[in-house]
Amino acid sequence: MCGFTVIFSYAPDAPPVNVGEMRQINERMRARGPDGEGEWFSSDGRVGLGHRRLAIIDPGETGAQPIQLAGIDVAPRFVITYNGEIYNYKAIRDELTAEGRLFASNSDTEVLLHLYDRDGPEMVHKLRGMFAFAIWDAEKQGVFLARDPFGIKPLYYATDGKTVRVASQVKALLAGGRIDTSPDPAGHVGFFIFGYVPEPHTLYKGVQALPSGSSLWIDRKGMPETRKYFDVCSHLISRSTEVSKADVLRKLHTALSESVGHHLVADVPVGVFLSAGLDSATVTGLAAERTNAALRTMTLQFDELAGGTMDEAPLAEEIAALYQTQHQTRTVRGVEFHDDMDHLFESMDQPSIDGSNTYFVSKEAAAMGLKVALSGLGGDELFGGYPSFRQIPRLAGSLGWIPGLTSAGRAIRYVSAPFLKHLTSPKYASLFEYGGSYSGAYLLRRGLYLPWELPDVMDGDMAAEGWRALQPLVRLEETIDGIVDDKARVSALELTWYMQNQLLRDSDWAGMAHSIEIRTPLVDATLFAEIAGLNASKLDMAAAPHLPLPSSVLNRPKTGFYMPIREWLVGEDPDHSEERGYRGWARRVYTQVTQEHA
Predict the structure, then answer these.
(1) 279-289, pLDDT tens digit by residue?
(2) Which fold has domain 240-384+501-551+558-595?
(3) Which residues, 6+ apart, have CB-to-CB distance to 375 below 8 Å?
(4) What CATH code is assigned to 2-231?
(5) How high is the pLDDT of residue 405?
(6) Distance between CA atoms of residues 67 and 480, nearest Å
(7) pLDDT, the chain, mean
(8) How is the chain split into domains, by residue range?
(9) How does DSSP classify residue 497?
(10) Contact by Cβ (8 Å): 483, 329
(11) Edge-to-edge, what's the strand order for the sheet holding 2-9?
(12) How many Cβ atoms from other residues are within 10 Å of residue 376's Cβ?
């Protein structure tokens, strides 16, 4: 896990790479790579690659980046800077070695260079892992960028028509001082609609995210469109109906165990974030089967929740005892939340209403001496664990047949909203306006603010412009185009929107804030392709470990991982009710993040 920087002056009249700028960008990502730094510049000064290293695989000097593919006395043909882990790199290396290729290191990074030399951009189809990388191709005079299928690792770029700048963080690009920071209305609207900024947008017109599962080629001619090489929807269009329950369980065990095994590949110890939920418990059980030494696990506990139904610690300790892990329970108190507030916001690369829990669990993992931890993230999206899997089809089905519902619903909302907002969530005023379609029902279920509420929290003209540019309802419908199965539709929405834009992004910045690499074995393109058609449930997933989970875990009602932020915030000023809940937290996050670059 690392951070990287690229500056490419591709236009003939572009100024050469500013060394100081690149070093400023790289330095802003120090937490992503505290174990070392490196840089490379082309002889003509038109290309610069930088890197910050968190050493996980081949942690010695041979694994340092950027890495070149060329002889010592010959100008490099290819140079790479890279963030992530390729879990099947040893198999690819063996294949390339059999073809006569020679390697100077034991790193997955060098494997990427040789694979690009052989396969070019098609290399992405061979990779199993999480990655974002840039390869300078001296022969073709261009930079190849790629990002993993689910977007676990970030990649942001900015171009002014002459020079392109690339980095692992938005804030790192801004630190270089050459980025257009005028607001992107779609990014600002996206945050208030969803609680995160949907890709490819950021808060700034000058910075875009390379979409997940995409690659991009940039050469002297300029920047063409991105190329999408992975699509969630295509795997969910058809569901298997002829697979027996026994076959489902057998296939699940094989696929899940293999994924967990791949995610344990490292030259440093790997731990597990263990809660009382089925997802992390299943990952723990499968990881314990794959390791010779005792697995290290950890759980967060909060004083405000101790002894209640939301307290994860007792069941997590039961799971740890079952699988004989080296377990630690760490307690987080409200005073720590407030003490860490400045660092939390500084680390939050794009505004998000989530991620604080991952920030603190990563902090404690770092205190335990870990560099790598597995997470159960992705289980709910894959196996239908959220209430949305029941609520959205029911809502869309019960209201979708009514002719003219949207127009009538708009009138109902106009009349009822002023009264409802004093009694319950204002979103209920839009039940008939949006509840008749999957996209509208998803917006009601996941939305933080609805479009008619936006002028209350941001400039009205920016809200209107951002809504038109973002087109969330159109994009939500495009996400499920061609999918007929209700569960598969919701899975596509949750995987593509909530998981990719919020959960995975939060795991990246929150883990990197403490130099912790968070791996997600349930978010794996190979696993997804193998099980997407099985229509398996969370309990099917939880049956994968050979040593069964205890009934206390299997029969526990779903609660989600809860962190008492509301209680901590209200404790600051109990008279200010606007601080309560996600909306109050969202306004605080937005104000804090936008003020940094005002």
Answers:
(1) 999 999 999 99
(2) Rossmann fold (3.40.50)
(3) 272, 273, 280, 283, 358, 507, 518, 519, 520
(4) 3.60.20.10
(5) 42
(6) 40
(7) 89
(8) 2-231, 240-384+501-551+558-595, 388-489
(9) I
(10) no
(11) 36-41, 47-53, 2-9, 163-167, 156-159, 208-209
(12) 24
